[in-house]
Automatic annotation (TrEMBL):
PANTHER family: STEROL 3-BETA-GLUCOSYLTRANSFERASE, STEROL 3-BETA-GLUCOSYLTRANSFERASE UGT80A2. It comes from Streptomyces lanatus. InterPro entries: EryCIII-like_C, Glycosyltransferase_28, GlycoTrans_28_N, UDP_glucos_trans. The keyword Transferase applies. Keywords: Transferase. Residues 3-64 form the Glycosyltransferase family 28 N-terminal domain. It comes from the Bacteria. Residues 286-388 form the Erythromycin biosynthesis protein CIII-like C-terminal domain. This is Glycosyltransferase. It holds the Pfam family Glyco_transf_28. Gene3D superfamilies: Glycogen Phosphorylase B (3.40.50.2000).
Amino acid sequence: MRILIAAAGSRGDIAPYTGLGAGLREAGHDITVATTDAFASLVREAGLEFRSLPTRPGAQRGVESRRELMRTAAAFVTELGQGFADAVDDGTELLLLSATTAQLGWHLAESRGIRTLGVHLQPNAPTGDFPPTVMGPRSLGRLGNRAAGRLALRMADRVYAEAVTSLRHRLGLPPLTPSAMRRRQKRANRPVLHGFSTALVPRPSDWREGLDVVGTWWPYVAPERRLPAEVEDFLAAGARPVFIGFGSMAAGHGERLSGIAVEALRSAGLRGIVQSGGAGLAVDGDDVLTIGDVPHALLFPRTAAVVHHAGAGTAAAALRAGVPAVPVPVTADQPFWARRLAAIGAATDPIPFASLTAERLADALGRAVRQEAYARAASVAARHMATEDGVDAVLKALG
């Protein structure tokens, strides 16, 4: 089957689909990934065909308010819809749609007469179990959580309204609002598979039929891939280090974060590996190493703890490695994942990015590394995650 996976966003929004695509390719399917040019190499390294989608303005996200995120997203998705239409050729038989691309892909599927399957990385359907991931982790009660979930969907509909109008006009389809299309999908019980672990978020019992949690889709790592020699040398030179990284977050905060990292590590008496990332962290010393991009799957199992921004993919990778975390959420859905990690005992209480200090980080690191309960909880979750096969669940859904 010729399958197009469409996704847009930051690295954490794209990388899981390289592993999913590679697994589907190994099962005999012809896989193309449509995403922004920044991730072309990720796609091609996984042996998948790449097609370009428009780049989001300010793609390397710093610390943005929710209002700013909404405004930039609305401008982006209108361009994204036109680029997505160009990426779908006549041979495409199935669209696998991320949460970002689903509200555009449904209209393309209607126009071309092809199937769709939702492959989402966040639990964005309303539920009484928890509030929407973009509204923070605090529960509003079952009725309040569901109401907030519906409100979040209506906000998303507004973001996509102009894009949908433009796309349907280009496709020669009659006018239809995003909310009307979403209700159509719901009535038809269109399937959506969620690529995260039930160790973190069990499937809500009040979700409709067709919504399932299938396990994490792990970013593709080539079988021959190894850690750089300088990393291996550092790992061999002493006790297990702590990893500190913020992914593509916190642009412009590199100097502040570098100082906090070094001071916290030395105050806690720990060695550290600091990832430069979007913030541009840079530290020097015998007890700390600055690195660029390395696969989490290779590095995290060899660390004592992971300090991260609590993006869905990084949070899952630390948990899979069975090591405790110190979450420092920055924006968007990160407070949600940070709180889920803490709730299962695999992480310390989150430290909001704006409140991060060397003293708070040192205290959290000391507890994460030296109190065995955190590592035990992470190990339990890791064993649970090992029983899940997100790729196989997608294959079964293909029929």
